[in-house]
Amino acid sequence: MDIRERSRSDSLFKIMHTSLFAYLVLLPFPHVTTIKEITFWLAVLFWLMLMPSRSQRLIPVNPATLSLALFMAVALIASIAGVEPVENLKRFKGELLVPFLLFSISATEYNNMTKIKRLLTPLVIAFAVYTIFVIAESFAWGLSYFWDENLRQQVRWLSGYAEMSITLLPLTFGYLLITGTRLRFLVLIFLFLEFFITAAYRNISSFGGSVFVILMGALFVQPRIYRLCLRVLIVIAILISSVMFYTHRDNPAIAEYRLKLYQITHPLEELKKSGGFTNRVPLWKAAVDVIKDRPVLGYGWGMKKYPRIISDGKYLSRWKTDEPEVYKIYSKYRGKYVPPHNLILELTFQSGIVGLISFTVFFVVYLIFIIKTSIRSRSDEDRNFSVMIVMGIIFSFMIANIMSNELGRLSGKVLFVVMGAGTAWIQSKKMKTRL
């Protein structure tokens, strides 16, 4: 590549990165949809203009990316062949095509740790700024702002915080480990604030994913002194939590936490209950019945059609005799949006068993690749990135989505950005090994 071509590529990359930076900073914030659309498609445009100057035209070719492409193809075919194909394709564009493009941009353009840090920085900044808005809003309500569920319908910023924390809290934790020393203290302050707000929110699936990542850190964070510090903090947190659970055992929030902890530690008992896991089990049973009618490719992408389909008289009449708890819920909320709140079931509803299998293969193959590359690496920075950021966010996302589906939302987009960066990191390690 001559000097003129290199200069052109550098200029295009800077414009693309600036557009992508703006999009990622705005990603958590409501009421800026138009600006987000403009900045995202500008980033895509300049990424496409960069294509002739790179060896990887679209995405690196390996079993993980091929399985992702297969899943995208299956979801597209399912959308065209499913119920309401036009609406399906609209949903496919917003909920799958955008994450796929974010994955592709990250996988092709951010191929070293310096660039990867630049890619992740706007997400960490966005979550920190959003946290500032939450704290500022809490001054008008006092501490009850964080605990009282009734207030969440009246406030602007706290609603949805738990869903953001699924990926952004583990990302902030991992970013703390790979960032420069000048920023670490500031990132650490925000990490503590974000952790305590998420804990107070009491969304056990979202918080549980973050706790799992922190426990992973106690085993795998590099260097060893970091692991020791983290273990000490975990012990202190357990002691404080134990004292709070005992001294404030009559507090409604503590009682709710105790109930949810009991539920997740007795899963078989909950699955047998008619309204187990806080009425998730009846929703799951209903989804399984609907999926049985179109098991191969599902109904097409998007859950907007779900209320109409599940309100069909044939299902309600069947549930009235066979599943009274299911009938009670869907007759009361007939025509209203009450989804299964489970990634696997919603994925199968939208793309069938074929889509579920291809999606599972993608994640399994990807994890194998990232684990193998991480084991071979001797760099603390590489280990912290691959294990704590990439694998940590994947596990946190999967744990949280047992009780929800965030694939096409903010957390899903962050997940694909990080997995794309992980793919670029794997490719760069392969190139160095060959050299």
Helix content: over 70%
Q: Could you tell me the mean pLDDT?
A: 88
Q: If you compute it from the alpha carbons, what radius of gyration comes out, rounded to the nearest whole angstrom?
A: 23 Å
Can you tell me the overall shape? globular
**N→C terminal distance:** 20 Å
Counted up, domains total 2
Written description of the protein model:
This protein has 435 residues and is mainly α. The chain has 2 domains: 7-53; 54-267 and 340-434, no CATH class. The protein is built from 19 helices and no strands. It has helices at residues 3-26, 33-49, 63-81, 85-109, 113-138, 144-147, 161-178, 181-201, 204-220, 224-247, 252-265, 267-272, 276-291, 306-310, 313-322, 324-332, 343-376, 380-400, 410-434. Helix 1 (3-26) packs antiparallel against helix 2 (33-49) and helix 5 packs across helix 8 (181-201). The longest helix has 34 residues, at 343-376. The two termini are 20 Å apart. The mean pLDDT is 88.
Keywords summarizing the entry:
mainly alpha; single chain; 2 domains; 435 residues
Brief synopsis:
This protein has 435 residues and is mainly α.
